[in-house]
Design brief:
Blueprint lengths: L1 H21 L3 H15 L9 H19 L16 H4 L2 H6 L3 H12 L4 H8 L3 H20 L1
Length: about 150
């Protein structure tokens, strides 16, 4: 019952990460995340760190699923300028046009609010790489959002 409660409590959080990074393969990434969590929960030494531990698994699985699925963005018809863009722009379509690595950095920094060092540790990349990917991801996202 404790495992069921843990999965239920973490599902919205894991779903948001997986859906934002793996897009159409988000459900697969979420499933793989929970499989890994349930298989390895006994290895977790610090129960208070469960959310960060699960986040690292979710990001890894999401990037893996996105790469495996060769997520390719479909062209999106943008509304005429006189239409209210806040209602018409599809965030998911803008995210789909980013690479999985750029989506991961953008989600971790801008949605999860992690610092650059935390993102670097989580993705196992240098902090400078996080900064450059974040800069590119924000620029690319904004360009797709506002076109």
């Amino acid at each position: 019952m404790a495992m069921d409660a843990l999965v239920r409590a973490l599902t919205p959080y894991v779903g948001r990460i997986c859906g934002s990074i793996a897009l159409d393969r988000g459900d697969d990434a979420m499933q793989e995340t929970f499989i890994a969590v349930l298989r390895n929960i006994r290895d977790l030494r610090e129960p208070a760190a469960v959310r960060g531990w699960v986040r690292s698994i979710a990001v890894r699985e999401s990037v893996r699923q996105a790469r495996a699925g060769d997520v390719v963005a479909e062209p999106v018809d943008r509304p005429a300028p006189d239409i209210d863009l806040t209602d018409a722009v599809d965030v998911r379509a803008a995210l789909a046009e980013l690479t999985p690595q750029h989506r991961a950095v953008l989600v971790l920094r801008d949605m999860d609010g992690l610092g650059g060092a935390e993102v670097a540790a989580l993705l196992r990349i240098p902090e400078g790489t996080v900064k450059s990917r974040l800069h590119r991801a924000r620029r690319e996202f904004a360009g797709r959002w506002y076109r």
